[in-house]
Amino acid sequence: MDRLRDKIIPVTTLLALLVVAWYAFAVVLNGPFQRDLDRRAGETPSYTEFLVKTWSQPKPTLPAPHQVAQNFFKTTFQVKPWSARSLVYHSWVTLSATMVGFLFGTVLGIVIAVGIVHFVALDRSLMPWIITSQTIPILALAPMVIVVFAAIGITGLFPKALISTYLSFFPVAVGMVKGLRSPEVMHLDLMHTYNASAAQTFWKLRVPASIPYLFASMKVAVAASLVGAIVAELPTGAIAGIGAKLLSGSYYSQTIEIWAALVAGSLVAVLLVALVGVAGRITERAMGGREA
Amino acid sequence: MQPASQAVVEAKKLGLTFHTGDGPVQALSDVDLTINKGEFVSFIGPSGCGKTTFLRVIADLEKPTSGSILINGMSAEQARQARAYGYVFQAAALYPWRTIEANVALPLEIMGIAREEQKARIKRTLDLVNLSGFEKKYPWQLSGGMQQRASIARALAFDADLLLMDEPFGALDEIVRDHLNEQLLELWKQTNKTICFVTHSIPEAVYLSTRIVVMSPRPGRVTDVIESTLPRDRPLDIRETPEFLAIAARVRDGLRAGHSYED
Amino acid sequence: MSRFGISWQAGLALVLCAMAAVALPLAADAAFSAGTTVLIFALIVLCALASMTVASTAFAAAILFVGAHGAAWLLVSGIAGHEGSARASFFLLVAAAWLLAWRCVTELVTIRPKNRTADTMLRLIVPTIFGVWLLLLWEALVRGFGIPFVLLPPPSTIAVRIANSLPVLAADVNQTIFKAVLVGYVLGCGTGFAAAIAADRFIFLRRGLLPVGNMAAALPIIGVAPIMVMWFGFDWQSKAAVVVIMTFFPMLVNTVVGLTASGHMERDLMRTYASGYWQTLFKLRLPAAMPFIFNALKINSTLALIGAIVAEFFGTPVVGMGFRISTEVGRMNIDMVWAEIAVAAVAGSVFYGAVALVERAVTFWHPSIRGG
């Protein structure tokens, strides 16, 4: 009951307000063009007719929510999922690159973090660079990586996944270093009094302590991974994927398509983050974690 | 008095200097102390007197910069490798992702003890600290006093003869603390272990100990060692007897003589 | 620890040298004179041996530093102009020099200097050596294997390109950073902050906004770029709009969370003074929220740059960093792309560094800054 009052009602109210505002903006933004059309056609529509017309243009400046919903529904459920017109197809193309990149990025991040925690030389040499690379727009590399790989004949999933790997690796590495170093001094001293080996301290203390950090950084990483895959789809001449959909939409001013692609991208993002969240919760529960 | 061969801890001219940003700090200076088997020795003194540091030196968590220390005739590092002692920290320091029994099992796993034997020992030590029935609970489902009892069980689980306790009850309220003190004495009688116990509290030190080591800071040093004349059997109300109060007064005098609270 | 031990890095470096000597010459053509070749071998072998015999760690590190970088420099400058002619011997020597640098770093990290400046210097030198070696290996491999510069230009070519294209790069930075990024960043952080204060005043708004804001962090917001380009045109205004949207939510969420960071006791104290909402806000809750707000400002500094550059992929006037990257990629002028990326990296670090400096000044009291 508290959940209803504290979360569901406020969120739905806010979202409902957003939808109302969206319709209002659609009128404001699409209005001038509609008036122009009507004047040329010599029509003088009533106020309601004018409103409905601003919400049903084929290439509106801002499509109304129901137009986006219709397009999304049509391209998701009413065409074959393997056809190039299907959003399911494009989402799948992006999702597969994201997943492959994310998995490799996570593994790489964990391996590097373990190295950093165990070797001082690696910590001092590499850690400053990893932190610095979080401050720079790595995503700018994406078009070049894609084009260079295309030049040597490698296209498709691999170069996109490479960019996703690269983007998801940094948050995981940083989060895992923090996590593996999170045990309190007292817990480490305790292991010392047992004369535990480095491996025992690692498996019995550092690894369990780092699990919450791992999943928190994996959530960030999976989102970054998706953005990487989408941006990586921009320079290839818009063949397949959500990024390609955005680009072709912007070429032909198909605003409704752009919005539908955005919705698809957001759904994929929510799905991925939710999956990582569920995996995290299951792991933590298995480890006896407290209910959050 | 026990013969000298029974010495569990032998410190000679022990000194330890920390190098901090504000220059060197003498945490321990010229500490000479011998602790014999079966003794219950309390270390008392104000903050910075080196009582915790001394315990950490015994445990090989700090290295002395001068002098020598022997535990069971071995160096501190050898003693640690031989798992000669159990250590109880100020906080329970239980792993939140392990149940109480899994926490007690931790040192046993690390020392490679067989599963069956582990089970037997967990049962025995949890019985000893009156925590039977809580094996499957997680630490955060227990009260502070119960957590600290679990951490004592963990220190007892591998049958080391020496128990090092660093203000184990400092964070608990007085009622719980009285109760645990009573239980600790009971446990000491049953197991005949040697216990080194760091505390801030004069009544606690007097109530528990066979010997009280008074320390004072700047530099950290031993200023007085008081032998207790109390019998081994100590009900809680022994604390109202004149004998108890006399020892407490001596400890207080010892602390004052160390100029400990003047600056 | 005995100083007179054999280190495996130096030992392996000697083994590699021996293998390289067997596999001579270094290059298929006359890239290396006999004198240079002897000098390289001498540097590596002597420094490896010396590092295992001298008594002081600092001295050993200095010897290794000179040996590794001297040899690497000779190798890299020798192969320049003779791309693709390198033979196995060349790569073995590069590996040997790299091992010496590794040993040098391993020696350096064991030094525990007493005074602060020396410690800071050491903390800078170690990652610098790593960065330099990344560039050296890049240079050596690209030139040694003769990888076409069209695919992967060596760092030296990129540096020359940066030096030769300063006016173009400056115009791009001006367009992308000083217009789109800064304007968008200020507007986005500002509105995010204002929304957070509003959300703090009205609990209903907070309960609605916080889950939405948290979810927004995971969404590929960058996708609104084509829409913004349609609405606000090709110039910097559309990029600034993307930046506003991208920076709004992190600021909102962090500020809202930060405003709850002050302790109960402190807030109760303000209540006993009968202080009003705004007084409590300015005297207690905002200062306590500063670490969170600066966290958002730092996250946003990177997001803003990404937003502006990627938005330019969707259309710009003929200037801007994203524009330059996408068009030069199309023309296969990869060295110019790398130049632009290098500038973007520097700009990102400087931006982040500037925010971090202000943070140090404002939240000097926070344990993470005091170094507690």
From TrEMBL, chain A:
Pfam families: BPD_transp_1 (PF00528). InterPro entries: MetI-like, MetI-like_sf. The keyword Ribonucleoprotein does not apply. Residues 91-280 form the ABC transmembrane type-1 domain. It comes from the Bacteria. Its main location: membrane. The chain crosses the membrane at residues 92-122, 134-155, 161-180, 220-244, 256-280. GO terms for biological process: transmembrane transport. It is a multi-pass membrane protein. GO terms for cellular component: plasma membrane. Keywords: Cell membrane, Membrane, Transmembrane, Transmembrane helix, Transport. PROSITE patterns: ABC_TM1 (PS50928). Signal peptide: none annotated. It is found in: Cell membrane. Belongs to the binding-protein-dependent transport system permease family. This is ABC transporter permease. It comes from Borborobacter arsenicus. The lineage of its organism: Bacteria, Pseudomonadati, Pseudomonadota, Alphaproteobacteria, Hyphomicrobiales.
UniProtKB/TrEMBL annotation, chain B:
The keyword Cytoplasm does not apply. GO terms for molecular function: ATP binding; ATP hydrolysis activity. Keywords: ATP-binding, Nucleotide-binding, Transport. It comes from the Bacteria. It holds the Pfam family ABC_tran. Residues 9-242 form the ABC transporter domain. Belongs to the ABC transporter superfamily. This is ABC transporter ATP-binding protein. It comes from Borborobacter arsenicus.
From TrEMBL, chain C:
Keywords: Cell membrane, Membrane, Signal, Transmembrane, Transmembrane helix, Transport. One of its GO terms (cellular component) is plasma membrane. The chain crosses the membrane at residues 30-50, 57-76, 88-109, 121-141, 177-197, 209-234, 240-259, 303-325, 337-358. InterPro entries: MetI-like, MetI-like_sf. GO terms for biological process: transmembrane transport. Its main location: membrane. It is a multi-pass membrane protein. It comes from the Bacteria. It is found in: Cell membrane. Residues 1-23 form the signal peptide. PANTHER family: ABC TRANSPORTER PERMEASE PROTEIN, ALKANE SULFONATE ABC TRANSPORTER-RELATED, MEMBRANE SUBUNIT. This is ABC transporter permease. It comes from Borborobacter arsenicus. The lineage of its organism: Bacteria, Pseudomonadati, Pseudomonadota, Alphaproteobacteria, Hyphomicrobiales.
